[in-house]
């Protein structure tokens, strides 16, 4: 049975995904173009294992999808509107509080 997530659930999933700098970097990279995990790991300077954990979190949050491509798997944003949402979010935060830093930046939760 398909259920529609509440607005709060949707925002919580998005916030959880953005709660880690590596996941943010993955989303920003995929905003530009789909990518393969090995290429993403190299571009972001993280191990493939670590990247795999973050991609799993982003998949679980419903923000990225794994697309089979022959023997490889390519990752992309689950919906192109997520790229636009990231653009708007970046522009909004900069416009509203460009001189602020998040007080809780050091106390991040990670996806289970």
UniProtKB/TrEMBL annotation:
Keywords: Cadmium, DNA-binding, Metal-binding, Transcription, Transcription regulation. GO terms for biological process: response to cadmium ion; response to lead ion. InterPro entries: ArsR-like_HTH, HTH_ArsR_DNA-bd_dom, HTH_Metal-responsive_Reg, WH-like_DNA-bd_sf, WH_DNA-bd_sf. Residues 4-97 form the HTH arsR-type domain. SMART domains: HTH_ARSR (SM00418). One of its GO terms (molecular function) is DNA binding. It comes from the Bacteria. Homodimer. PANTHER family: HTH-TYPE TRANSCRIPTIONAL REGULATOR CMTR, TRANSCRIPTIONAL REGULATOR-RELATED. Metal-responsive transcriptional repressor for the cmt operon. Binding of cadmium or lead causes the repressor to dissociate from the DNA. This is HTH-type transcriptional regulator CmtR.
């Amino acid at each position: 049975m398909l259920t529609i997530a509440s607005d709060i659930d949707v925002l919580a999933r998005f916030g959880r995904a953005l709660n880690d700098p590596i996941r943010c970097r993955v989303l920003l990279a995929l905003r530009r173009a789909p990518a393969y995990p090995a290429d993403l790991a190299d571009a972001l300077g993280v191990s493939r294992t670590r990247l795999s954990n973050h991609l799993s979190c982003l998949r679980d949050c419903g923000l990225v999808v794994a697309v089979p491509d022959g023997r490889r798997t390519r990752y992309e944003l689950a919906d192109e509107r997520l790229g636009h949402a990231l653009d708007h979010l970046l522009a909004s935060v900069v416009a509203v509080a460009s001189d602020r830093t998040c007080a809780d930046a050091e106390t991040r939760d990670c996806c289970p």
